[in-house]
Amino acid sequence: MSELATLARPYAVATFKRAKETNSTKKWSENLAFMSAVLSNKDISVVIDNPKVNKQALSAFVLDICQGQVNEEAENLLQLLVHNNRLTLVPIIATLFEAYKTEDEGYVDVEVVVAYAFSKEEKPKFASTLEKTLGKKVNMNITVDKSLIGGVLVRAGDRVIDGSIRGQLQHMQKTLQ
What we know:
The chain has 177 residues and is α+β, with helices and mostly antiparallel strands. Helices cover 61% and strands 14% of the residues. It starts with a helix and ends with a helix.
């Protein structure tokens, strides 16, 4: 996966820079989401992965599917990816683009795993605490995992905050060994 991210990063960076230049980050986000959804389809993946399909036919096929759904610059990106045999990177490019976009807007996407669902009062308090801790506004994606026993596990990019009882027990176990 990291190898694919390395291959996708230059395309995502260039796309993000172009989106900023043209003040069209929202449109690019929509374009990439659509292209990612299309190219993730199993039936379309079969055609993309088929080495017998030449680049010109593949380009025409993909552009035909995306016609009217993406702008001209997105179509150019698709043609470039087909030409460079990198069409399968679109979902990763879209993910990286979204990360650059949220970073630029001063947000950070945060995965929050809790043992029990937040109440209506707890959620904004927790979000406020996270914003102070991380120094950015947060977009929280909350999931419930009873195996945590209690507490919370937070993932913000490469940063992990483990305040779960399970995590504390594991840490205690390692310390005692």
